[in-house]
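Support request, please re-run this one:
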Amino acid sequence: MASTITTNSIQSPSNASRLSSLYLSRNRISPNNVLFKTPSQSLLATKAKRFAFSPFPENRKSLVAKTLSFPGWTQQIRLTSSVVVKAAADAEGHAEPAKSFGERFPALVTGFFFFTWYFLNVIFNILNKKVYNYFPYPYFVSVVHLLVGVVYCLVSWGVGLPKRAPIDKELLALLTPVAFCHALGHVMSNVSFAAVAVSFTHTIKALEPFFSAAASQFVLGHQIPLSLWLSLAPVVIGVSVASLTELSFNWTGFISAMISNIAFTYRSIYSKKAMTGMDSTNVYAYISIIALLVCIPPAVLIEGPQLMQHGFRDAIAKVGLVKFLSDLFWIGMFYHLYNQVATNTLERVAPLTHAVGNVLKRVFVIGFSIVVFGNRISTQTGIGTAIAIAGVAIYSLIKANMEEQNRKADITHAS
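Re-run finished. Output below.
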């Protein structure tokens, strides 16, 4: 004899629109199967009994799990909220999409970004210095760096990766000071790279936080805590010790690296004033274009006559035309890519991780440059470099923690 089963209504806290077809109603069981009926389809499930489902009433807002017993069965079927929700999603085509690799392993993806950033930066510094060994024209090479990057951006815009963001006069006025400081800092860094060892230039550039703190205190009027100033003491001492005993030291390399620090400090100041809703890839592309236009005139005026007389001819005689052109192309490509990947990497992490990442990058570059070029450094230079890097690390950690506390305080105050 057929059995009749009566079930209580099963309600769900989930959105009623997604579970509207899963309200159990009374119905008689057939001995063959269970048929789940929805407004659009029917699903045949297992080999047991038959139910009919009717829409949820509008006023039902809770989900109560029930146990259904079937005469003649030695087991019970327990319907829970998770079963009902899954059945609803499958029945109405709303199944949750599978997570991407990046969503499942965010730490692994972020680690890959850091590795790529460091790798591209190290390769750039090594190739760049090798070019200067036979082609010592940093103003022209700086133009090449930016030119290759601009061409890369134009091609990317052409294929829609990314889509070019429009720019107006107001945004152009905001980005121009940033681009000017970017151009000045970039050219002066290259002048230093051409004049002294790569490791020494990066040691001097470790002073950048000192200039940043000074500009914040004396230009912007921001009060810098004593702890930050004290953390900068090892940086100054370390750079001083390294400079006094650096075998490749010359004033051109030292002064140009210091000017680069000042330029990048003001670039950071103007960047904060030029905050915009445009994505970082497009912003960096526009900055590169403007910086290129800024760099071309001094390159032509300062190095143009020498290049035309013997600069190009000497370089081609030493390495050949093909290698000369390929070297210029690749250092430009690596320069643009490492800056772009650095921007994308730092967008993925917190300020503390950002600070640590910047310090470790400088350590990587200094270490690899010493190994690749076989630069001899005195014991004092090594100690001074280590002290400077340690000071930068301490400063960066203190500053990042302060920024994080300020951010949390702002959120608490806003709420």
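The chain is about 70% helix and 5% strand. The beta strands are 4-5, 23-24, 27-28, 34-37, 42-45, 53-54, 66-69, 76-79.
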